[in-house]
Design a protein that fits this description.
This protein is 21% helix and 18% strand. It is of the alpha+beta class and 375 residues long. Strands 1, 4, 5, 8, 9, 10, 12 and 13 form an eight-stranded mixed beta sheet that branches. A five-stranded mixed beta sheet has the order 3-2-11-6-7. A hairpin with a 2-residue loop joins strand 8 and strand 9.
Length: 375
């Protein structure tokens, strides 16, 4: 994307001041960052290649389609570029690798995940903000409630039942889910319907990895997600703000899309309870409430499911709930957003992007649809 503004350093010189040494990025760091970004740019030109991790490319047998030894021109260079960036202390998106890790002392198990070309190059939101500013009504309706009260959530043992219009219904325990497919670190934008946003380094793999194992039948047109509702563990269930358990839904093609994530971690660790432990959904082009937390059941169904917010406030929340700056919420505009940790309350809000910036990947899913009607 072209910028119409001067770079920070150029602007300082125009104002008659030479940049201070602390404002200049070290050449070796700048060069490594550029190699990482160029590598991701090369990936973007290879069709479906961006959805494969470098680890997967390396793991492919020599001579197999997609193996580094037989990859199309440029793929081997992608791996080298990503490796160079990581060696210099940078993540695959060109930001500090340290910013993608939780601080010491969380007590949560570490997860190893390969960098993903599906990641944004935007600066991740601080771990402190991501884990203390949450919507998780099962633990209360205030933003700080989940971090305060989700300690009561027991995430072991845990299982997710996948059933419905499938040939092979299965129950997966959490240990199976952690090993079901290679884990990727995907840095996604997250846009809340309330008008704020974050950038979060999730860990998981495409939901399609789970769904294809149960062999969906042709009647499976939609996928319903059901979350835990346990009054002993979740004090927020005393509230009648919505009907419990919390349920969400996707069209089958949305659920099978490579960006739709079965998420088991963030910031290099398993999910914190307040972020939807131990397993949740992440759909980056939709408003955050579509990404159901603490999943216990996934049902493939023929008819569109009635989701929790459609049941509670159908005039405000539709089934699709795609991020759309052109369609206002009945009570506020969706044209702009405030990035948590970056945009102050008094600063100008940033413009919201269509499909939260993922239009190039997902717009074809809605070709010909009236997005004002199917909001």
């Amino acid at each position: 994307m072209k910028s119409t503004t001067l770079s920070c350093l150029a602007r300082e010189r125009v104002l008659g001041r030479e940049p201070r040494a602390s404002e200049v990025t070290a050449q070796e760091v700048w060069a490594a960052r550029r190699r990482s970004l160029e590598a991701l740019g090369a990936l973007a030109t290879l069709g479906t290649a961006p959805l494969r991790t470098v680890a997967a490319l390396r793991a492919a047998p020599s001579g197999a389609p997609g193996a580094l030894g037989t990859a199309p021109p440029g793929v081997a260079g992608v791996a080298a570029g990503l490796t160079a960036g990581l060696t210099a202390g940078l993540g695959a998106n060109g930001v500090s690798a340290a910013s993608l890790r939780a601080p010491p002392g969380t007590g949560l198990a570490r997860l190893e995940a390969a960098p993903s070309a599906s990641s944004t190059i935007e600066k991740p939101t601080a771990h402190q903000d991501v884990t203390t500013y949450n919507n998780f009504y099962e633990f209360g309706t205030d933003k700080e409630d989940p971090a305060l009260y989700a300690k009561s959530l027991r995430t072991r043992p845990w299982s997710v039942r996948v059933e419905g219009e499938v040939a092979r219904p299965q129950t997966f325990d959490i240990e199976q889910l952690l090993k079901l497919a290679p884990l990727e670190e995907r840095i996604y934008r997250m846009r809340c319907v309330e008008g704020w946003s974050m950038v979060i380094p999730w860990i998981g793999y495409p939901l399609s990895e789970v769904l294809r194992r149960v062999e969906p039948r042709s009647q499976a047109k939609f996928v319903e997600f059901v979350t835990l509702a346990d009054r002993q563990q979740m004090p927020g269930l005393r509230s009648s703000v919505i009907q419990w358990p919390y349920t969400e839904g996707l069209r089958i093609d949305e659920a099978m899309h490579p960006l739709t994530l079965m998420c088991v971690g963030l910031y290099g660790e398993v999910l914190a309870n307040q972020n939807g432990a131990p397993v949740r959904l992440v759909v980056p082009w939709k408003y955050g409430f579509k990404s159901a937390k603490s999943l216990v059941s996934i049902r493939l169904v023929e008819k569109q499911p009635l989701t929790s917010w459609m049941r509670s406030a159908p005039q405000e929340y539709g089934f699709f709930s795609n991020v759309n700056p052109e369609v206002a919420h009945p009570r506020w505009s969706q044209a702009t957003e405030r990035r948590i940790g970056e945009d102050g309350l008094l600063s100008r809000k940033r413009k919201t992007l269509m499909f939260n910036g993922y239009a190039e990947q997902v717009a074809t899913l809605y070709a010909g649809m009236d997005l004002r009607k199917f909001y």
